[in-house]
């Protein structure tokens, strides 16, 4: 059968258009343009992101090598604390990824960082599905298991875990650093207070029962200087280190007791030149991160009264007190960020560093089984 002659011009146009398109494509392919590569048509693009101009981003290159940096998309700002992404470079010298909060880059993001506490219980505010097959989701959580809402349906969504736990894929802590050359410059800061505690969180639901009952017992035998909202006055961020260093001892009491959950509450006094009195996981776990003679553990004493007596004795014995600083000869603590909006910077920057270096396939199955074990 012949085609009706009236349709012939149209057919001709289609064929010419098709050949023309193919030719343009071949020409582009020769110059390695991503425009004709199959992935140019974004196959996973959900309706709401249709307006993205892909050509704008595909050509994004960086560094002197011209190699493209992976994109790390911050899906939520944790606690809505905002800061400048440049801080990763200026504070930690981390520049390994393109960090962004622009959700319209979702389809190109190599990794998406998702803050656990911001996820709705029905998962309705997670990034759209299906996700691009090359994309990794990172679970960001900084609280202990006691303070982890169990949101159903999250167990098998993530590729990487990011927390303080040493066995997280990305473990972010406050490491002490060792130096071969002895530090000769350390002097114990001037002290005008015996025992201090900075405390704001008084919510019983956060598991603080253990530390509150210990404190209530301890204060019967020794004076504890309280700072922070428990004392009725919020402490200014910039007063944190100066106040800390003016205390001989500091109560580094974690809100709940869990493996590796040793937070800035330990790093603060170590960096300030104060002796921490710790309550948290067993001494052995602390000694994974800090020299055994850098802190006093509440478990070293049968009860709070014995601890109080020991601190009072050290207050009178300068030589014995000084021995808590011996470790500083070759080990150093680094002050952490203390401004209210800086709480998550280190976590987010280290995620950036990680995805800048790691390309391997990874799935994190059953995160709750791991987390709550
Ligand atoms: C998309 O971005 C490119 C590069 O910035 C620009 O040249 C082009 O005009 C943009 N296209 C549209 C439709 O906005
Ligand atoms: C990420 O994890 C999900 C869920 O386990 C998995 O389906 C996906 O293939 C993983 N993707 C990458 C790029 O590792």
In short:
With about 375 residues, this protein is an alpha/beta fold.
Keywords:
binds 2-acetamido-2-deoxy-beta-D-glucopyranose; Glyco_trans_10; 4-galactosyl-N-acetylglucosaminide 3-alpha-L-fucosyltransferase activity; disulfide bond; alpha/beta; elongated; Rossmann fold; five-stranded parallel sheet; EC 2.4.1.-; 27% helix; disordered N terminus
Describe this structure in words.
The chain is α/β, with parallel strands linked by helices and 373 residues long. It has eleven helices and 13 strands. The strands form three sheets. It has a six-stranded parallel β-sheet with strand order 2-1-3-4-5-6, with helices on one face. Helix 4 packs across helix 8. The chain is elongated and about 100 Å long. The protein starts with 7 loop residues before the first helix and ends with a helix. It binds 2-acetamido-2-deoxy-beta-D-glucopyranose (2 copies). The site of one 2-acetamido-2-deoxy-beta-D-glucopyranose has 7 residues, from loops.
């Amino acid at each position: 059968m012949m085609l009706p002659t009236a349709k012939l011009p149209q057919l001709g146009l289609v064929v010419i258009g098709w050949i023309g398109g193919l030719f343009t494509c071949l020409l582009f392919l020769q110059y390695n343009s991503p425009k004709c590569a199959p992935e140019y048509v974004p196959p996973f693009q959900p309706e709401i992101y249709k307006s993205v101009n892909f050509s704008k981003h595909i050509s994004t290159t960086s560094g002197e090598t011209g190699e493209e940096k992976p994109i790390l998309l911050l899906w939520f700002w944790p606690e809505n604390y905002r800061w400048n992404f440049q801080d990763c470079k200026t504070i930690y010298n981390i520049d390994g990824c393109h960090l962004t909060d622009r959700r319209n880059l979702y389809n190109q993001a190599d990794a998406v960082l998702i803050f656990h506490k911001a996820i709705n219980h029905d998962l309705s505010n997670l990034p759209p599905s299906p996700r691009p097959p090359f994309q990794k989701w990172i679970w960001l959580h900084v609280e202990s298991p006691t303070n982890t809402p169990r949101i159903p349906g999250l167990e098998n969504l993530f590729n990487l875990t990011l927390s303080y736990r040493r066995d997280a894929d990305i473990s972010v802590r406050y490491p002490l650093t060792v130096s071969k050359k002895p530090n000769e410059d350390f002097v114990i800061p001037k002290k005008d207070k015996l025992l201090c505690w900075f405390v704001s969180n008084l919510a019983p639901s956060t598991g603080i029962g253990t530390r509150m009952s210990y404190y209530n017992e301890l204060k019967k035998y020794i004076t504890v200087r309280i700072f922070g909202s428990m004392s009725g006055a919020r402490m200014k961020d910039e007063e944190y280190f100066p106040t800390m260093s003016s205390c001989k001892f500091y109560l580094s009491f974690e809100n709940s007791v869990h493996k590796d959950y040793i937070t800035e509450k330990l790093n603060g006094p170590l960096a300030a030149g104060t002796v921490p009195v710790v309550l948290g996981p067993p001494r052995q776990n602390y000694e994974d991160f800090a020299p055994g003679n850098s802190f006093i553990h509440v478990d070293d004493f049968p009860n709070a009264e014995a601890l109080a007596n020991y601190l009072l004795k050290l207050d009178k014995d300068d030589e014995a007190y000084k021995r808590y600083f011996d470790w500083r000869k070759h080990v150093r603590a680094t002050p952490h960020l203390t401004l209210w909006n800086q709480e998550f910077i280190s976590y987010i920057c280290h995620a950036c560093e990680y995805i800048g270096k790691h390309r391997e396939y990874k799935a994190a199955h059953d995160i709750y089984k791991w987390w709550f074990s």
